[in-house]
Design goal:
Shape: globular
Strand content: 5-15%
CATH topology: Rossmann fold
CATH class: Alpha Beta
Number of helices: 8
Helix content: 25-40%
Radius of gyration: 20 Å
Structural class: alpha/beta
CATH architecture: 3-Layer(aba) Sandwich
Number of strands: 12
CATH superfamily: HUPs
Low-confidence stretches: none
Order of helices and strands: EHEHHEHEEEEEHEHEEHHE
Strand order of the largest sheet: 3-4-7-8
Amino acid sequence: MFETITGRLAPSPTGGLHVGHARTFLIAWLAARHAAGKVILRIEDLDATRVRADAVDLMSVDLAWLGLDWDEGPDLGGPSRPYVQSQRCSIYNEILEILKASESVYPCTCTRADIERAASAPHAEDEGPTYPGTCAHRTAADGDSLGGRPFAWRFRVPRGNVSWDDLMRGPMAVDPSRVGGDFIVARNGVGAGYQLAVVADDALMGVNQVIRGDDLIPSTPRQILLFKRLGMRIPRYGHVPLVLGPDGRRLAKRDGSIKLAALRESGVDPKRLIGELARSCGWSEELVPSHPRDWVERFDWRRVPLAPSIVGEGYKHD
């Protein structure tokens, strides 16, 4: 008997969604629906300094405009509620205590900037030098003796490759001890960071298929290590190429002209956009105005190019 695929759409409400998000979410949605699986909508809003109050509602509008739906989420509820990360902090605190008890983490007082970055998903271009282990001599109990000093909890990364069979790229192996080193999972007095929260949520929500941009490849071995240390099941990962602007740079939420809200307000037909995204994935040679469900049977990982997609006029105009 085959296991039901459970995928997820996990936007961060730090600005409007753009064409790059639309392409990745379309692939994630189709990968689940093609396997007769379900989709969870989860709002990843732990980075309070960047969250916009209006962004959550706007993201739901954007996704619905594209024709993407979900089976569980903030608006629908479900067995794994709540589906908003800022409402799940007690869960993350419990997971952190498990990591402390096993001495898998230690208190780190290095650079406030590093600590503050923990709430956001780190992208490939944000990777700094490998952490040298300055505070690795500490035990978890040493956190109680630091007084009012700000510190983060770092995960002890073992040496050696972490391997996985990527749905998009095939066999992959990364040694996280050489790429980033011990990484931050929480900030004292503030709460969980991206890596811990995502692992806890994927495990407890039963997510077994994670499709996301290839800029998040550096996060995958870290999350696999957390899953293993916690004795939780590891999902299958698929990392899809990004959508780049005409200048060859990764699209950002500040790029207003390709935001879904801007396209919607300018009268762009969402079926045309879906058709353009499907063509960029290699499922059609022609631009076929369509609904996401029209591609469920034709979804094929093998046709999706490994090269990034470039924003062209087809994304913008009727």
